[in-house]
Amino acid sequence: MALEAIVIACVFFFRLVITMAAVDRFSLLYREISRSCSFYIEALAIVGAWYTVRKCVSLALDTYSALRLHVIPRLSGNTDLVKKYGKWAVVTGSTDGIGKAYAEELAKRGVNIILVSRNKEKLEAVSRSISETYKVETDFIVADFSKGRELYPAIKEALKDREIGILVNNVGIFYDYTDYFTNLSEDMLWDLIHINIASATMMTHIVLPGMVKKKKGAIVNVSSAVCCHPTPMYTVYGATKSYLDYFSRALYYEYASKGIFVQSLMPSVTTTKLVAFNSVMSKRSFLFPTAEEYASHAVSTLGLSIRTTGYWRHAIQFTLSQFLPEWMWAWSALYLCRVMRKQALTAK
Ligand SMILES: NC(=O)c1ccc[n+]([C@@H]2O[C@H](COP(=O)([O-])OP(=O)(O)OC[C@H]3O[C@@H](n4cnc5c(N)ncnc54)[C@H](OP(=O)(O)O)[C@@H]3O)[C@@H](O)[C@H]2O)c1
């Protein structure tokens, strides 16, 4: 459209120059300009009308899909997840934060839960609490995902006789606080790769063949809203989340025809211990929900959207951030991250 406007402007300019050379009286020149302009104004009006119609249609479609995702499911009652996907769900990183809240939300809808996390005492407590509260079966697997490849044969063995309908690849870590890439230790870099990337890839590799055999199943990969803009001082974390986003979307197109639903879930700030380094982000507010609030909305988007923030308040933030040019996003993120780093270091 910009190209069309430039071409029209150039043609107009050349006609004007030619006309000015051909006439020597102002009234003749004025008449000639008016005649030329009316054609170009009409052409520009058509371009403008076309642009406006396109924008209106896309706004109407976006509004419809937001209502379909965030409002209608909450008004029309819960989907029967057991019937749709299967009896059991596996949730990684499920002893705290979003993973625990998501597991509880699935249990509330009658799904049996297998928790996978690193701390046995916490696993026992959460497992007991879920089975007593929601009257579903629960089990757990102790697994420290930072250990890497050695871990997965035992997980595969533990899951082999279970009919897994839903896999939630939630486990993820962030740094102690927002920081420069060169300040991150080698251990931290490997932990980010093993916990944020390898766990989701390997867990999916273990569980997906069983789902394909049954021709039904859902995989939720918990990415992050930061994956959509290059965010300084979130460098490696953001890159691991971009991996999950890409992985989920590509996997969906590969397996949709086999009855598998894959979702890239991209939360924005949620008040868990992951963001405890910052006093503002760790306090519940309009923009920053608790894990429980977030999970209750996120679960109702399961099966409806392959790529979503999972919560309408996060969707508003996400949509607004999409309007910012990349340099402006990066510039403001860098400023805020520096402030947060300074505060975290001072608090230390
Ligand atoms: N919170 C946010 O603002 C936010 C925003 C966007 C995306 N996310 C993503 O959401 C997911 C959940 O985050 P969260 O905020 O709920 O985090 P969280 O509160 O820190 O909880 C993380 C969970 O993962 C477990 N875990 C950590 N390291 C592990 C390891 N090496 N092996 C096994 N389990 C491990 C933790 O176990 P313990 O109980 O033993 O610590 C805990 O159960 C992450 O993928 C995160 O990147 C979060």
UniProtKB/TrEMBL annotation:
<protein>
    <submittedName>
        <fullName>Hydroxysteroid dehydrogenase like 1</fullName>
    </submittedName>
</protein>
<keyword id="KW-0521">NADP</keyword>
<dbReference type="Pfam" id="PF00106">
    <property type="entry name" value="adh_short"/>
</dbReference>
<dbReference type="InterPro" id="IPR036291">
    <property type="entry name" value="NAD(P)-bd_dom_sf"/>
</dbReference>
<dbReference type="InterPro" id="IPR052149">
    <property type="entry name" value="17-beta-HSD3-like"/>
</dbReference>
<keyword id="KW-1133">Transmembrane helix</keyword>
<keyword id="KW-0472">Membrane</keyword>
<keyword id="KW-0496">Mitochondrion</keyword>
<comment type="similarity">
    <text>Belongs to the short-chain dehydrogenases/reductases (SDR) family. 17-beta-HSD 3 subfamily.</text>
</comment>
<keyword id="KW-0812">Transmembrane</keyword>
<feature type="transmembrane region" description="Helical">
    <location>
        <begin position="6"/>
        <end position="24"/>
    </location>
</feature>
<dbReference type="GO" id="GO:0005739">
    <property type="term" value="C:mitochondrion"/>
</dbReference>
<dbReference type="InterPro" id="IPR002347">
    <property type="entry name" value="SDR_fam"/>
</dbReference>
